[in-house]
Amino acid sequence: MSEAALRQEKPSGPVNVDPVTLTVVEKGLQQVCTEMDLVHEKTSFSPIISEAYDRANGIYHRQDGRMIAQGELGLPIFLGQLAVTTNAVIKLRDDLEDGDIVIVNDPYLGGSHLMDVRMVRPFFYKGRLWAYLSNVGHWRDTGGVVPGGFTTKSTEIHQEGLRIPPVKLVKKGAIENDILQFILANIRVPSDSLGDVKAQIAALGAGARRLTALLDRYGEEIVDSAIAELELRSERLMRSHIETIPDGTYGGVAFVDSDGVVNEPLEIRASVEVSGSDIHVDFEGSSQPCEGPMNTVWATTLSAVYIALKHIFPDVPMNAGCFRPIMVREPHGTFLYAEYPRPTAGSAAEVSQRIIEAILLALAPAIPDKIFAAPAGTSGNLSLGGIDPDTGEPYVMYNFSGGGYGGWWAGDGISNGCATIGISKSQPVEVLELRHPVLFEHYSLREGSAGPGKYRGGLGVSYRMKMLRGTGTASFLMDHGRQGPPGTLGGQAGAPNKIVISRGGKIEVPEHLSKGEGYVLRPGDWIDVNTPGGGGYGDPNERDPARLERDRRNGY
């Protein structure tokens, strides 16, 4: 916060807000964010944002960047991170004025990987800094050694792409063209990226207009008091849920296939201590920082813990109060606390999901009626880049795919569900085929991939992508290739991830099973991807025979 804004900050005491007004303000704040999400989605050029919803928007507090509200359509992993990003911008940029927008993708400042590009706009109301509007979109490319940025062999952040510190992209409402051109010059698909830049700016503009209207209607004191009350209510509800967990210390272990460089698994050890209405999470004993790009920054590790608890208690409204009962010890000295210059390409999409898995496994014995078995736990990141000979234009295709969710206490897991860190959906293959020189020869549920249990896991998916023309360089950064998602309470594991590549008629399986880069594809070459099924819940011998018969009849 700038000195000028601090001088103009009006002290105000608490104001009682009646329940009806409180609810209207709560929904109004959420609607501001949801409208930002929709503007972001509808005006973006990249299918990864416009079709797959790989983005988020939120309102953050003027003092410390804590979350005030989120859009209903934003990825949860981003909204936890954006609070850390906004806090970093507050600390580093005390010169922001009305109409400024900061752009940043530095993973060590509340980010994840370099393709997740954030923008932060200070929001002024009647000449005073009132809040921050922040968003993030997954750009298809930010440079680096492989198209799409999902390198599996990087050993330092500089190999992964362009790293942007918090700089003013927009100054007093006008785009800083020098900064913009510098960024676009380092991207393989600058024209599409320009559209995505303007979409993020437009979303923040829509948020500013709608938030102004909300404040005009109810006044600053009412809205400020409502925010404080909403935080308090979220905290109380989360604490009441935590109190249903028996006091004790619970442990869970999850494994990352490899770091992409050293072909050995990485270990995540989660210790979850429940004491009354508090939860303390510790990752002591997890693997040390790794050579490859599976190091995970603090903001992502923290967000993953929050998401795990939100999966268990989904009814708690999302704001800063929701997270106050959850204390996470910073895991210094492990690969879950990446520091410069450690590479981080796989942090948000993959390692975060292993963290969630470890916490779910830890709490399963304590609250079996609130837990589901491990889901697929991989985003299935597949990138392809080259120059299309039909157009002469460069392209970068980024695709992710669904997998099976784990069985739960009252039913089977979801088939082809999204990643546990988001609400995104797969891009339509017709859109990908229209924009890139590829053909998806089949796309189906993966038969036999569900983990057996009293309630089985959901099925993963199976698809084949074939190169049609020209040459393209493929890379993929996935996980759960060594072993499938584990079952819980006697359930069995789902099928592991499986990737097969055919080049020139020769079949290959990646050395690291779920990770690889630099695969040059020519016409007729293809990649088969088979994503994991979810783990089973409970003893398979207790499964209802009618459910078994239905699975056989459906070809599962």
Structural features, described:
- The structure is a single chain.
- The chain is of the alpha+beta class.
- It folds into two domains: 3-235, no CATH class; 372-556, no CATH class.
- It has helices at residues 3-8, 19-43, 47-50, 76-92, 177-184, 190-218, 220-242, 298-312, 320-323, 347-363, 429-435, 545-553, and strands at residues 55-61, 67-70, 101-104, 116-125, 128-138, 167-171, 174-175, 248-256, 266-275, 278-282, 326-328, 381-388, 393-399, 438-445, 461-467, 472-477, 498-503, 506-508, 515-521, 526-530.
- The strands form four sheets. It has a seven-stranded antiparallel β-sheet with strand order 2-1-5-4-3-6-7, sandwiched between helices. Strands 14-15-20-17-18 form a five-stranded antiparallel β-sheet. The chain has a four-stranded mixed β-sheet with strand order 8-9-10-11.
- β9 (266-275) and β10 (278-282) form a beta hairpin.
- The longest helix has 29 residues, at 190-218.
